[in-house]
Amino acid sequence: xxxxxxxxxxxxxxxxxxxxxxxxxxxxxxxxxxxxxxxxxxxxxxxxxxxxxxxxxxxxxxxxxxxxxxxxxxxxxxxxxxxxxxxxxxxxxxxxxxxxxxxxxxxxxxxxxxxxxxxxxxxxxxxxxxxxxxxxxxxxxxxxxxxxxxxxxxxxxxxxxxxxxxxxxxxxxxxxxxxxxxxxxxxxxxxxxxxxxxxxxxxxxxxxxxxxxxxxxxxxxxxxxxxxxxxxxxxxxxxxxxxxxxxxxxxxxxxxxxxxxxxxxxxxxxxxxxxxxxxxxxxxxxxxxxxxxxxxxxxxxxxxxxxxxxxxxxxxxxxxxxxxxxxxxxxxxxxxxxxxxxxxxxxxxxxxxxxxxxxxxxxxxxxxxxxxxxxxxxxxxx
Length: 382
What we know:
- By secondary structure, the protein is an alpha/beta fold.
- The chain has helices at residues 24-36, 56-64, 99-102, 120-131, 151-156, 210-214, 222-243, 255-266, 274-281, 284-288, 310-320, 336-341, 361-378, and strands spanning 10-15, 43-46, 67-74, 80-88, 93-97, 136-140, 160-162, 182-184, 193-198, 268-273, 293-297, 300-301, 324-329, 331-332, 346-349.
- Strand 3 (67-74) and strand 4 form a beta hairpin.
């Protein structure tokens, strides 16, 4: 039974982006536009959110209004680009999205080849932030185009990698992993505190490691995957010997092509769940406790959703405060029983009302408006 909602009710709309289609802002705006077609005198709070991957900087900037810093860096193929990150001068903390310098979004499909890509540009952004006084970096690592175990990032920060001829690999890429025989300057940036926003727990190497799990989507052939996996295992042994520590099977080590492990060796790193970090950073708890209804969503809700993803994090808060939760996603494959256990009141999928038409930004906005209106009418908002 749906309990009619009051005219003066308070709604929180906090949605993630629909990847390659709409930003989090646009998703929420479209839903709200649909609600307003039924009633425009509701108290609606809109907080665009992300899960710690692409879109995280935009969500943080919208909520915290931090200083946006433009900097020159290199893309995954080491081509000059201009990128940006956020800097909280008061707390000496930088917020950096790896995807802004080393992301798949910067490459054409035919350019995706993680044997040739490097995380060097991400290291340049970190160095720029440190030069401006940052002693802590929140590194969002979703959407990377690299499988170089972070050697590019480390090289940009002063760690030197040598081949068998004693040559320094100045701008190392994935295929250089098996060429490295010596590493110097491992502690060059050890005093940098790093919060690694990550939602995967893959080890660095092995059948479930960085290369085998994520290499193919970054352009790796089966032979490339084996080569990169062997290179990561080989380089990890060098780090283990040099530092006395072994992070190969630490939580998050295999994230973003192994950059998780490198961050652990190079920085003072703490791994945090990306979705949980964003929920805390945007103070979603404080807003959920005050509202009557929460509307959230992202591109897809599937079995991974219950493994620390954004919707799961939001649902924990709505259960905590006994609030209604409506989920709007592009595709929903998660079983209804699992959704009930998460405390989801209603869930809507664009795929069920799209008539299999191609998704474009405009058509997706129209579908979200339609669902926003349907939610309003279902809850008798009038």
